[in-house]
Design brief:
Length: about 575
């Protein structure tokens, strides 16, 4: 156990009344651990039925777990809200210093209610919350500048986390993100737009509490065990050396890398934007989230001349990983690494989710090719690989100068209902498709996952394990594997553990670590709890109008061959029914 553990303390902040208070939720944290488990319960309690995602009544809930600040790689915070992109469950995870800062400030969760009448940012300093006027930084052209201003103004350097939005969040773009520590994000499903709707520019949180474990001997032994497991793991070494960008060549070689809006599954320029090429020619440095020895965050150094004086250069450090390379690289057929970095930088400046941005631009390019939208509506000719026009289109999505860009600002699902092209609009449950076309399991996972994310159940890994199998895996077995994996991931995201360490944080070790911290849960009870949390998330979804029969399967995924051959729509539909029969039982 931890002496005086503050994990059960929930900080409530009301932006409308500019008030704050703390409530103890010991029973909630004892039953649901923290993270996604606690957040799912709080979302059901705090969010009115049918709430407009951009109304003051839509809460922002940010939670951490019992392992945060105690064990390595337990370094994520979980945000939950109603998504303006999908109109349903919004959940996003971020690393950086966010989780440790919240824990050391003395909280297990933060709940933000209401909306301010002027732009504000929150400065949470331990037991105090300050409502700062953010009028001077509202509308700033770059999210980088916003971060720098707050860093210079607020105390707690080295221990704090600064979560902020860019102009995309202010303009209520449905897939605007929240940036934390510049290189990490609450990326998916539009948390940035929820911030913007509340006139909340940023949250700065800092604390200096100490977490003192009652049984230091057992704790030291367990800490050493997991630390050695992580630092000696070959997979973790790969994350350090190349990061997730290692997937580019792997997927390209297996013909499962979505390219040109999934008209193709391999990219001739794939080697140029691979993790290996970035590491050899562009890597500037690696950084790590708090309390993580792996340093999987890779920053490329982009050196560009100033337009006013070609003899002077600026060097930008730009974060890259697989999903960003897929969405703004292969999907748009951008093969030049420097051009790709410029796109990644612009997305960061504006505060957009890179996956949704890239998939939306890919749909727009094909829609223009097919004559569904005119050059007059787009304001330019979008062409595969044309970086300058893609840069301008990103800015136009944020500015929203006409109906076409207003539609793009709401995502590819919405835009295709207005302009057509649904067959090649790559979204599931309203959320743009991640970067895998490996076979039936990955797409079934996107369709059924609570967030419609590749991180829900990692179906792509099931496909990859069965590439060489001559026997087709029954859909029932695939469904069971997806359900078991997504259920177990609820435990990881309740503790909150980085998914990269899922192979190191085994059920046996997690049970041991929790025992040291005063919990009494065996492996079977943990798995049962994971399934319960997954059902809680889906309870919220059904409450908010989610219907299984409305799930759309984009025709493009059926037309473009995977390493397992063409996908069978009837088989996918059967898998959907089987999966939700487990959710509803």
């Amino acid at each position: 156990m931890i002496d005086g553990d503050p994990l059960s303390r929930v900080l409530y902040i009301d932006l409308t009344s500019r008030d704050f208070w703390v409530e103890d939720k010991t029973e909630l944290f004892e039953k649901y651990l923290g993270g996604s488990g606690v957040a799912s319960n709080l979302l059901l309690q705090e969010s009115p039925i049918g709430v407009d995602p951009l109304s003051p009544e839509n809460p922002i809930i940010i939670t951490v777990g019992p392992l945060c600040g105690v064990f390595p790689l337990a370094s994520k915070a979980v945000a939950m809200f109603k998504s303006p992109l999908t109109g349903n469950l919004g959940e996003s995870h971020a690393g950086g210093r966010s989780a440790v800062a919240i824990r050391l400030a003395g909280y297990g969760a933060i709940v933000v209610r209401g909306a301010s009448n002027i732009p504000v940012y929150l400065s949470i300093q331990g037991e105090r919350v300050y409502f700062r006027d953010a009028s001077a930084i509202w509308g700033m052209g770059s999210s980088y500048t916003v971060g720098r201003v707050i860093r210079e103004r607020e105390p707690g350097s080295g221990l704090r986390s600064i979560m902020r939005i860019g102009r995309a969040g202010e303009r209520l773009i449905s897939y605007a993100c929240v940036i934390t520590e510049t290189y990490r994000h609450f990326g998916r499903l539009g948390l940035g737009a929820v911030f913007g709707s509340k006139r909340l520019k940023a949250i700065m949180i800092a604390g200096d509490r100490r977490l003192k474990v009652k049984d230091p001997k057992s704790y030291r032994e367990a800490y050493r065990e997991i630390f050695e497991s992580v630092t000696k793991s070959p997979s973790m070494k790969k994350y350090h050396e190349l990061g997730t960008s290692m997937n580019v060549n792997v997927l390209n070689e297996s013909k499962s890398l979505p390219t040109r809006n999934l008209l193709k599954t391999s990219f001739e320029g794939g080697e140029e934007i691979s993790g290996e090429n970035f590491a050899a020619n562009y890597l500037g440095r690696r950084v790590a989230c708090s309390h993580c020895p792996v340093s999987c965050i890779h920053l490329a150094a982009l050196r560009e001349p100033y337009t006013s004086d070609p003899y002077f250069y600026k060097t930008s450090m730009i974060s890259y990983d697989y999903e960003l390379i897929y969405a703004l690289g292969s999907m748009l057929e951008v093969s030049d690494p420097r051009s790709l970095l410029r796109l990644l930088d612009e997305v960061e400046i504006q505060g957009l989710d890179a996956i949704s941005t890239g998939v939306t631009l890919a749909w727009a390019t094909e829609a223009q090719e097919k004559g569904l939208v005119s050059e007059n509506e787009v304001g330019m000719r979008l062409r595969w690989g044309d970086v300058e026009n893609y840069l301008e289109a990103i800015r136009m999505i944020v500015k929203q100068p006409n109906d076409f860009y207003k539609a793009l600002a709401r995502g590819v699902e919405y835009a295709s209902t207005i302009y057509g092209g649904k067959d090649f609009a790559l979204a599931y449950g309203g959320n743009e498709m991640p970067g895998y076309h490996t076979g039936p399991a990955c797409h079934l996972g996107f369709i059924t996952g609570a967030r419609h994310s590749h991180l829900d159940s990692a179906g792509y890994s099931i496909d990859q394990r069965t590439y060489t199998s001559k026997i087709e895996q029954p859909i029932e077995e695939t469904v069971n594997q997806l359900f078991e994996e997504e259920s177990w991931r609820q435990i990881l995201s309740s503790l909150v553990i980085c998914y990269f360490a899922r192979g190191n944080y085994t059920p046996d070790f997690i049970a041991k670590a929790l025992t040291i911290l005063g919990y009494n849960l065996n492996q079977e009870e943990l798995r049962r709890l994971g399934g319960e949390i997954l059902k809680l998330k889906n309870r919220f979804k059904f409450r908010e109008g989610f219907k299984i029969e409305n799930l759309r399967i984009p025709r493009r995924i059926l037309e473009t061959e995977t390493p397992h051959g063409r996908l069978d729509e009837d088989k996918l539909r059967r898998g959907i029914k089987l999966y939700y029969s487990k959710i509803l039982e």
